TrEMBL record:
Protein name: Prolamin-like domain-containing protein
Keyword line: Signal
Pfam families for the chain: Prolamin_like
Record domain Prolamin-like: where: 65-125
UniProt key word Signal: yes
Length: 134
């Protein structure tokens, strides 16, 4: 009886015994998996346009200003950041400096919009901690 009670208390305090830590694993593997995430079909393109059109104009202007703050190479830097979030592949120092220049609030708002896109929305619930960490 004492063993049963002790085991119950220990497992409730340390529930991760015998469980694999999935936070250390990438959501997507490099290569084909990442290429599949980047692929855009006509239907997903329509979804993305509809989603962007339904955002408030003021908010879209703010996101645009944030993207401009990250300078001309925003697209490549954005793809690198998304790849880091999904695959844990480190981003370049130059890209990190652009994110810092834009500021955390801008960075987080851009990520919110990006993870509403059709290709990325399936990861939205899993990336909030990782997005903040990056």
């Amino acid at each position: 009886m004492a063993f049963f009670i002790t085991t119950t208390v220990v497992t409730s305090v340390y529930p991760c015994f015998g469980q694999k830590n999935i936070d250390d694993e990438p959501l997507v593997n490099h290569g084909r998996d990442m290429d599949a995430v980047k692929a855009i079909s006509p239907a997903s393109q329509d979804y993305n346009w509809d989603m962007l059109e339904n955002l408030q104009t003021k908010y879209m202007m703010y996101i645009g200003t944030c993207m401009n703050t990250m300078e001309s190479d925003f697209r490549n830097c954005n793809e690198d950041v998304i790849e880091e979030i999904l695959t844990k592949k480190p981003v370049s120092r130059e890209c990190c400096m652009k994110v810092v220049k834009a500021g955390k609030k801008c960075y987080m708002e851009i990520r919110k919009v990006m993870f509403q896109f059709y290709q990325l929305k399936r990861f939205a619930s899993q990336v909030s901690f990782r997005t903040n960490e990056v």
